[in-house]
Amino acid sequence: MRLALHHHGTVGATLFDRRSPRIALTAAGARLLPYAETMLSIAAAAQKDVGETVTAA
């Protein structure tokens, strides 16, 4: 969520609807979600790989 909030202004579209008591994804946010999940997965894999490399050294 922190990543999404950080990049909310850089995407060029409104990602969240904050008009109700609960925050909801807009259509643009829903389209971006799979990309964000993929980026987080890749970042976690890279961090694990680098961590294993440093530990093995």
Give a verbal description of the structure:
The chain is mostly helical. It has one domain (2-56). It has 2 helices and 2 strands. It has a two-stranded antiparallel sheet. Strand 1 and strand 2 (24-25) form a beta hairpin. The longest helix is centred in the C-terminal third of the chain and has 30 residues, at 27-56. The radius of gyration is 15 Å and the shape is elongated. The protein starts with a helix and ends with a helix. 2% of the residues are buried.
Short structural description:
The chain is mainly alpha-helical and 57 residues long. Helices cover 63% and strands 7% of the residues.
The Rg value, from CA coordinates, equals 15 Å
**How many individual helices?**
2
Low-confidence stretches: none
N/C terminus separation: 34 Å
Given the C-alpha coordinates, what overall shape results? elongated
Q: Quick one: how many beta strands?
A: 2
Please describe the biggest sheet, giving its number of strands, its sense, and whether it closes into a barrel.
2 strands, antiparallel
- For the record, the count of structural domains works out to 1
Helix-strand sequence: HEEH
Protein name: LysR family transcriptional regulator
Organism: Microbispora oryzae
InterPro entries: WH-like_DNA-bd_sf, WH_DNA-bd_sf
Structure characteristics:
single chain; 57 residues; mainly alpha; two-stranded antiparallel ribbon; 2 helices; 2 strands; 63% helix; elongated; WH-like_DNA-bd_sf; LysR family transcriptional regulator; WH_DNA-bd_sf
